[in-house]
Design a protein that fits this description.
Layout lengths: L3 H98 L3 H13 L1 H5 L5 E5 L4 H10 L6 E5 L6 E6 L4 E6 H7 L1 H14 L6
Parallel strand pairs: 1-2
Antiparallel strand pairs: 1-3, 3-4
Helix pairs in contact: 1-6, 2-4
């Protein structure tokens, strides 16, 4: 005969087993849920890590390009500075050589040649001419003009800033002919610049 105590004991066992079973189920579900959460977290961390590595690499590449670009820019700037320095140095050397040239017999022939080269324009100047030149060149220029038939009444204006040669002005027509060494030098500036570039290129100082 099953007593009340037996029934209570049996009920307790049944309830306990049920609770234990439900608890195990809860634990199992919790473990599965935790595993899912854990896997999601790991995946998230992995994606973040990959993104971080990607960002670091991209940043490194940008830094590399920036540093390289800065280095190239500085190199080009240095080349331009060097070209300018060489240009000034070479230009000054040419000026010194031209000053020496003024002291030679060849200089008188140069003055005469400049007149001959421009004789067509010079002979059209029927009005009084104003001649601008250095004081030391007045007689050379006067002789060259007279010898070539340009015998208008000429007024000479001294300008010691002229390197050599002379400038002719028709005061009535405002016509001007520049036959100075300065004009020749100015016309050849581009050639001098190219010469310097070629010299630097040969020395390996010019690059892309």
């Amino acid at each position: 005969m099953i007593t009340l105590d037996n029934k209570m004991e049996l009920f307790s066992k049944v309830v306990l087993e049920k609770v234990k079973k439900e608890y195990k189920e809860v634990l199992k579900n919790a473990d599965e849920k935790n595993e899912i959460v854990r896997q999601d977290k790991l995946k998230q961390l992995e994606e973040q890590s990959l993104q971080y590595v990607k960002d670091v690499n991209e940043s490194a590449q940008k830094d590399k390009k920036r540093i390289l670009s800065k280095a190239i820019s500085q190199a080009r700037k240095n080349i331009l500075i060097k070209r300018e320095e060489i240009f000034i140095e070479l230009y000054d050397m040419i000026i010194e050589e031209l000053k020496k040239f003024r002291m030679t017999d060849e200089y008188a022939r140069f003055i005469d040649g400049r007149v001959k080269d421009s004789i067509v324009d010079l002979l059209e100047l029927k009005n009084d001419l104003m001649v601008i030149c250095r004081k030391n060149d007045i007689e050379l220029v006067r002789k060259a003009l007279t010898d070539n038939g340009v015998i208008n009444s000429n007024e000479f204006i001294v300008n010691e800033e002229i390197l050599g040669g002379f400038i002719l002005l028709d005061r009535k027509k405002g016509f001007k002919i520049n036959l100075t060494l300065d004009s020749i030098l100015e016309e050849n500036k581009a050639y001098i610049g190219k010469l310097i570039f070629d010299l630097l290129e040969e020395a390996g100082d010019v690059n892309g």
